[in-house]
Predict the structure.
Amino acid sequence: MNRKILIAGASGLLGSNILKSLDSKVNDITLLSRKEIGTNKDVKQIVTEFSEIDSITDEYEFDTVYIAIGKRLSIMELAFLPEKNKKSFEEVDYSFIKNIALFGQKHGATSIGLISAVGAKSGSFNSYLDVKGKTEDQITSMGYEKVVIARPGHLLGERFNEPINYSVMVFELITNILGYFLIGPLKKYKNINASAVASSLISKMSDQSKGVSFLEYDDFTRS
């Protein structure tokens, strides 16, 4: 079935995997980003600052929205976000996501897929997880017929156009080994390939279910 899809964040690790996994010959795909994205797929592009999305006057028609944006944080900031950085983080990971969801809804979208994070919960003592949880609450309260929220742990995969980060490489090496010891309810914290998350999200978004669904590690690893 041909669907009209809006993807926000297609230049990032997970967004690029979502774009890669969607068939642009079957679907009518539009990318929403701050700068034009190079791709060999037949897609349309809307280039704008996410803070200025309300100023877009062109007419669009969407069925489905995928949101895979987020402010890039260091490993230390994920554990403890300094007060001086909270405002800019909330702007991207809450306000911009809300703006995009409203934009999609304004142009007809009834289904939305959001990339969140494992452990997201409004009211968490961890600022990162608190904001992620508030964003989830916002999206699920907006009246979309279908909401699918993916909650992955640390994402693995090739990050294009990013300098080599040796601290991330060391972190992944250690946590990949520690992952063997994460069993039962702790399994959801394992590292996971971005391609698996993208495929799982697209699969769930493509079925006939409605309402709110959450995807975690077991969902991403099902073949």
